[in-house]
Write a structure and sequence with these properties.
The complex is a heterotrimer of chains A (about 325), B (about 260) and C (about 270). Chain A has about 325 residues and is α+β, with helices and mostly antiparallel strands. Chain A folds into two domains: about 230 residues, Rossmann fold, CATH 3.40.50; about 90 residues, Beta Barrel (OB fold (Dihydrolipoamide Acetyltransferase, E2P)), CATH 2.40.50. Chain A has eight helices and 18 strands. In chain A, the strands form four sheets. Chain A has a six-stranded mixed beta sheet, with helices on both faces. In chain A, helix 2 crosses helix 3 and helix 3 packs across helix 4. The two termini of chain B are about 30 Å apart. Chain B has about 260 residues and is an all-alpha fold. The chains are: A alpha+beta (about 325), B mainly alpha (about 260), C mainly alpha (about 270). Chains B and C meet through helix 1, helix 3, helix 4, helix 5 and helix 6 of B and helix 1, helix 3, helix 4, helix 5 and helix 7 of C.
């Protein structure tokens, strides 16, 4: 694995507040790395330090093996897409995309060609002469993307690029991002608070919280095995159960079932009273008040066609999950 | 609509009468054939326009006013635009205080400022009156230069400059290719307001005048003290015509009312 | 942020402010040439007790308040009607109200000489109507000054009130009317209070301007109706009495600051309530 960039014990403090707390992070080349976490976790601060818009209080940032901690942004050769897109309103789409190329003294003819190619890559070839304010949100976002890609950056940095888009467009753009990254082979670092986005896009997921990295790895490794409760909660795990010997375990709503007459599950068993059954089209969401010292509510989804689930509010049920689906957490 | 609120409409009409009618009278009087400010005028004539245009003190004063206004406007922008950048895009301790300082000339009575400069700079430091006038006018215009351009900056996405830096532009490059174009409407509005404010200024120009350099409003004021004839009316009408032109240009480029909205929060 | 050192760009402007405004002003107010602070204080005390000076101070404050009141009473309706108007004339009317601000005070005030003078329009009109035997001299009276200052500052009042009313959601009017409130009730209960801060700004601007204006009181008041500004000019340019000038300047400045301060407080209180 080639390393595109590295954070070495990077800390960022603003007065008394520590935004990023001594993190070590490796960004592999040619892959898409996601910094994932709730707001305030330090992911955007880290991205901005990587881009050069703020200097770490301590630690080093290496880009292509070179210590770039104090290098100004214009000399890092990175491409960044801002959450608000930050398009230049007084320039056309083509001029926006060509801005970085003009700075690099690319001759006009070649510049036009590269701009056209990049706009085609993002699907906006027909809008080269338009002004940003005439474009929709999704189009503006793609112009911002094209502008960053056109300069063939060492790294492509994306700060919550999809959060201003409506749901359907977001889903479409996720696929687009994957395609563009595959076609260009760029190293991408993406910041998001949306775990679905991170799961779908990442080659490497970095879960952050309160300035620290909780867990990192490929989605396929991280998702089924969250390291602790914080990561699990962020990934959408519910139903946390502490057993008698003190171990904390969790199981996703999709893997918890209402047990029929057999009443057998090798992972986890719970009893309780049904509180609510909600029809959600693809499934039913069943909320159960578990017989637990804390009276916890537990949620599970049940396939609509599952005849066994005729549970109604007030029914007493036994729930169970297979061992394979039960995750033991560190705490 | 107006007939549904008779009280409001009446008050509104009274207000407009007070604002506009005196100016109409000035214009009317400038066409008089007589030699007093009597109304109704005795006959119609353009003689007073002819007199005004040939009256040397007025011509000299008009040129002086234009020179001073132009110079002071340029100076105010050269100092004010960097200040706006520092306040809105820089890391400045006590940003609010600094901005308040730049707006402070608006709060102190102009006569007080004029007296201070007259006494301390002109008499005390023996600076020539043009220099002191220039300083005084520039100071009076700094609030416009800072506030109005600041409004332009505030409307723009604060990250465009970072975007330019990220794409490879040095801070200076960023300023000229991104920030300045964004500031253009604000700069134009500020320039217009400043120029007009300087041209029309009385208190400062009055206290800081000298035999060799006087502005037009001051000369007109002086003239009114000595003779009560319609030449001042004619000069006023000429100025009015010029100002209407300026207003039309302002409306076409930036939008007239918006210019003033910028200074009143 | 453009660069780390962008903050330094403030220095040249700050330097001019200091050297060309703050320092000279402070020096003039507190220690003019040949005059000690004690002299100024003495003269100040004199002014605050001498009946002649007190008349001038009181006239300045009184006329300022009257002009402020008139500007609000006339200006707010104009602002309200324009802000709520859907007709295409509202833009023209607004421009007409703002335009005079581009003219010098000399030009704007000169018109009153034509209107109010003994040979002027009103005088001749009253004479023609047979209401008087001799054309009255309306110039050099407090009425003339009030009219002149009102003309000067009405546009400012309109601008402030306009922005204030424009920010009040017209939907609130509809909501109130829908709930049964009469038009008057809606106005006094909703629009007026919400425009409050803007009205306070308008009042402050008008008062500060009226209390410190020079050209208009000079042209329309003459030597019989002196105000603080004309007095100040006299001390500065005619009698060259630095102690008196500083004392007068102090009174003027304090007056304006106090009013600004009070209005800020009123605005803040209005915002929290």
């Amino acid at each position: 694995m080639t390393v595109a960039a590295q954070f070495q014990q990077v800390t960022q403090r603003f007065g008394d507040f520590t935004a990023v707390d001594a993190i070590d992070l490796t960004i592999p080349a040619g892959k898409l790395t996601t910094l994932l976490g709730p707001s305030g976790c330090g992911k955007t601060t880290s991205l901005r330090m990587l881009a050069g818009y703020s200097t770490p209080t301590s630690g080093r940032i290496l880009i292509d093996g070179v210590d770039s901690t104090r290098t100004p942004p214009e000399r890092r050769g990175l491409g960044m897409v801002f959450q608000s897109y930050a398009l230049f309103p007084h320039l056309t789409v083509a001029e926006n995309v060509g801005y970085g190329l003009k700075l690099r003294k690319m001759p006009a003819a070649e510049r036009t060609r590269v701009v056209a190619e990049t706009l085609d890559l993002v699907g906006l070839g027909h809008l080269a002469g338009s002004r940003p304010k005439k474009l929709s949100g999704g189009q503006q976002q793609r112009v911002a993307l094209a502008r960053a890609i056109a300069i063939r950056p060492k790294l492509l940095l994306l700060d919550e690029p999809l959060s201003n888009l409506d749901a359907r467009l977001r889903v479409h753009m996720r696929a687009e991002l994957r395609r563009i990254q595959a076609e260009t082979g760029l190293t991408v670092v993406l910041v998001t608070h949306d775990q679905d986005e991170a799961l779908e896009l990442s080659d490497q997921m970095v879960v952050m919280r309160e300035g620290r990295i909780l867990q990192q790895g490929a989605p396929i490794d991280v998702f089924p095995a969250p390291a602790n409760r914080l990561v699990a909660e962020f990934l959408g795990y519910e139903n946390f159960v502490t057993s008698a010997d003190g171990t904390l375990r969790t199981v996703r709503p999709e893997h918890l079932q209402v047990l029929g007459q057999e009443r057998r599950a090798d992972g986890l068993t719970l009893e309780g009273v049904v509180v609510d059954v909600a029809f959600r089209g693809v499934d039913r969401l069943v909320t159960v008040d578990a017989d637990d010292s804390l009276g916890r509510t537990v949620r599970l989804t049940a396939d609509v066609r599952d005849g066994a689930v005729t549970a109604r509010p007030g029914d007493r049920v036994v729930l169970g999950a297979d061992q394979a689906h039960v995750v033991t957490l560190a705490g | 609509m107006n007939t549904r609120r008779p009280v409001a409409a009446t008050l509104a009409v009274a207000g407009y009468v007070i604002m506009i009618v005196p100016i109409l009278f000035v214009v009317a009087t400038s066409f008089t054939g007589g030699s007093t400010l009597r109304f109704p005028p005795e006959g119609l004539s353009l003689r007073w326009f002819d007199a005004a245009v040939h009256h040397t003190p007025f011509i000299t004063a008009m040129v002086s006013s234009l020179q001073l206004a132009a110079l002071a406007t340029v100076l105010a922008l050269l100092l004010g635009i960097p200040a706006t950048l520092a306040i809105h895009r820089g890391r400045l301790p006590g940003k609010g205080l600094v901005e308040g300082l730049f707006l402070s000339p608006l709060i102190v009575p102009e006569l007080v400022v004029g007296l201070a400069l007259f006494q301390q700079l002109m008499i005390g430091l023996r600076l020539d009156n043009f220099t002191v006038l220039l300083i005084g006018h520039t100071v009076l215009m700094l609030p416009y230069a800072v506030r109005v351009t600041g409004a332009s900056l505030a409307l723009a996405d604060p990250f465009v400059e970072e975007a330019a830096r990220g794409l490879g532009a040095s801070p200076l490059r960023t300023f000229f290719t991104v920030t300045l174009p964004l500031l253009r409407p604000g700069i134009f509005s500020a320039a217009l307001l400043s120029f007009v404010t300087s041209f029309n200024n009385v208190p400062l120009s009055l206290l800081l005048q000298s035999r060799d350099f006087r502005t037009l409003p001051v000369t007109m004021l002086d003239y009114v003290q000595q003779s009560y004839d319609p030449m001042v009316a004619a000069t006023s009408t000429i100025i009015l015509a010029g100002t209407v032109l300026v207003a039309v240009v302002a409306e076409r480029t930036v939008g007239f009312a918006r210019i003033f909205g910028g200074i009143n929060r | 942020m453009i660069s780390r050192r962008t903050g330094l760009l403030v220095l040249p402007g700050l330097a001019l402010l200091l050297a060309g405004f703050l320092v000279p002003s402070a020096a003039m107010l507190l220690a003019p040439p040949g005059v000690s602070p004690a002299d100024i204080l003495a003269r100040l005390g004199q002014m605050l007790t001498d009946p002649y000076d007190l008349t001038i101070i009181w006239r300045t404050v009184r006329l300022g308040l009257i002009v402020t009141l008139i500007c609000l009473v006339l200006g707010f309706p104009i602002a309200y009607l324009l802000a709520r108007s859907t007709s295409r004339w509202s833009g023209v009317l607004l421009a007409l109200a703002i335009f005079p601000l581009l003219l010098s005070n000399v030009v704007r005030t000169f018109g009153w000489l034509v209107v109010l003078g003994s040979n002027g329009a009103i005088g001749q009109l009253l004479l023609a109507l047979g209401l008087v035997d001799q054309a009255p001299q309306l110039l050099y009276t407090e009425l003339a000054i009030v009219l002149g200052l009102t003309q000067l500052f009405l546009p400012l009042a309109i601008i402030s009130c306009y922005s204030a009313v424009a920010q009040v959601d017209p939907g609130l009017d509809d909501a109130a009317r829908g709930l049964g409130a009469s038009r008057t009730r809606t106005f006094w209960g909703i629009v007026a209070p919400l425009s409050g801060p803007g009205i306070v700004v308008a009042a402050t601007l008008v008062f500060a301007g009226s209390a410190t204006a020079y050209t208009t009181p000079y042209l329309l008041g003459g030597s019989s109706q002196r105000m603080l500004s004309t007095q100040l000019f006299s001390y500065s340019s005619v009698s060259i009495d630095w102690a008196a000038a500083s004392a007068t300047a102090l009174i003027m400045t304090v007056l304006v600051f106090v009013v600004s301060g009070l209005s800020s407080l009123a605005a803040r209180r209005g915002r929290t309530s």
